[in-house]
């Protein structure tokens, strides 16, 4: 078996790239890998991919090569060559544009990245995540109380997962009480980037007056410039909240489709942490991660990448690579699922992952405890949905569940 | 014969995988950065230490022996 798919992008780029790079397939769902991606992975570790700006780069579908790439400093996140249609940067004020440029950990490498990352890391350590647990459990129980009042099927995504994830986000970031009611409309609902910036600024100003033990207060106490603080505040207020909600909904779908595992986990709550790892392996929101760009001509494994070419890691495929996991298509909460790329890998590996694990475990467990007989009525995500974001993420969709009244 | 461990605190990105899978050997300080609790842990910890090293997203844990 060759390690690189047949068509050669170097010649292709000069001729007619459309003939040589393949388009990202949309025939998968979060719980069922695109058959096209699976076929590419059988063929090779990497496949030429047509990018939106017309150039041909690569998509990596095998786990081992994916990790090598994410660890390799010859790739950068700095020069994102792809415009992000979801981010209308032109519509925001000049300071906000500068803040986006200097304050995004995922858009910087090296020392700049390390400085930004270290400003927020303290509140996301394993210890910190555990210290939020009691408050997270309270938030979850309040939401259980709220959906318990429903009669008939309930959409877990909008009535349970999203509100829990938004409230935990406010808790960890330290969104001031007087702004918390405005948080969801601006960050979860339809809004503009400018409104998000205005919110971030107001939150930082309030924290300046009344600092606490939270991420936003750490930012105002740090030696970061005002632009860096503001950019980073925007990132932490936005990042990961959808992913947490997505995983809560998607894990419940997976478990209810495998009733015996729902029952087993309900009887073995101590196995929840391992189960969460399996949720993140199979339920990943990310079809691909944000693309990386080669800073030089390079060879990695048997893949040759040219300066300026983009490379995308297909998390969905790498998380089901038979070279890494036995029987990878099988959802199995008893397996050792570590080694998945659901939280990324390398210096940009998710900073919020320990908090995310805690919330997902609490939220899924509370449902099992309260309604052991919970039934899945329907879930939009069982059929392919349009990707939710230009970086190719699965939409969560409605997840309708019901229980005996 | 016992395993010796080196951690590179400047490479660490504070993701906490090491503390999650080998909490008797690795911890994170108040800044989220790795702290080594045992430089040469006993044999019973070898497999979890190897796991931590392979799961560390920043390759900040080096094993000798
Ligand atoms: C289940 C929930 C979550 C999932 C699946 C997830 C996934 C990811 C992934 C895959 C990456 C790497 C992206 C890449 O390399 O292209 C990432 C990075 C990041 N995540 Fe999360 N995330 C989650 C929750 C959170 C939470 C709760 C936060 C809190 C703010 C967060 C903040 C971040 C940040 C700031 C980065 C960029 C880190 C860097 O560049 O150093 N995430 N996340
Ligand atoms: S797993 Fe690696 S990056 Fe994460 S805290 Fe431990 S040493 Fe640091």
Compute the number of helices of chain B: 2
What molecules are bound to this protein? Answer: protoporphyrin IX containing FE, iron/sulfur cluster
Provide the gyration radius of chain A in Å: 21 Å
Query: Are there runs of chain B of 5+ residues with pLDDT below 50, and where?
Result: none
Order of helices and strands of chain A: HHHEEHEHHHHEHHHHHHHHEEEEHHEE
**Which strand order do you get reading across the main beta sheet of chain A?**
1-2-8-5-3
The CATH topology annotation of chain A reads as: Cytochrome p450
What proportion of the residues of chain A form beta strands (DSSP E)? 5-15%
Q: Give the tally of structural domains of chain A.
A: 1
Q: What is the helix fraction of residues of chain B, given as a range?
A: 10-25%
Q: Can you offer a commentary on this structure?
A:
The complex is a heterodimer of chains A (405) and B (65). Mean pLDDT of chain A is 92; it is low at 5-18. In chain A, helix 11 packs across helix 13 (226-238). Chain A has one domain (12-402): Cytochrome P450 (Cytochrome p450). By secondary structure, chain A is of the alpha+beta class. In chain A, strand 1 (46-50) and strand 2 form a beta hairpin. Chain A is 48% helix and 9% strand. In chain A, the strands form 3 sheets. In chain A, strands 1-2-8-5-3 form a 5-stranded mixed sheet. In chain A, strands 4-10-9 form a 3-stranded antiparallel sheet. Chain A has a two-stranded antiparallel ribbon with strand order 6-7. The N and C termini of chain A lie far apart (56 Å). Chain A is built from 18 helices and 10 strands. Chain B is an alpha+beta fold and 65 residues long. Chain B has a single domain (4-64), classed as Alpha-Beta Plaits (2-Layer Sandwich), CATH 3.30.70.20. In chain B, the strands form 2 sheets. Chain B has a two-stranded antiparallel ribbon with strand order 1-4. The longest helix of chain B has 10 residues, at 46-55. Chain B is globular, with a radius of gyration of 10 Å. Chain B starts with a strand and ends with a strand. The interface between A and B is medium-sized, with 26 and 21 residues. The site of iron/sulfur cluster (SF4) has 16 residues of chain B, from helix 1 and strand 2. Iron/sulfur cluster binds next to helix 1 and strand 2 of chain B.
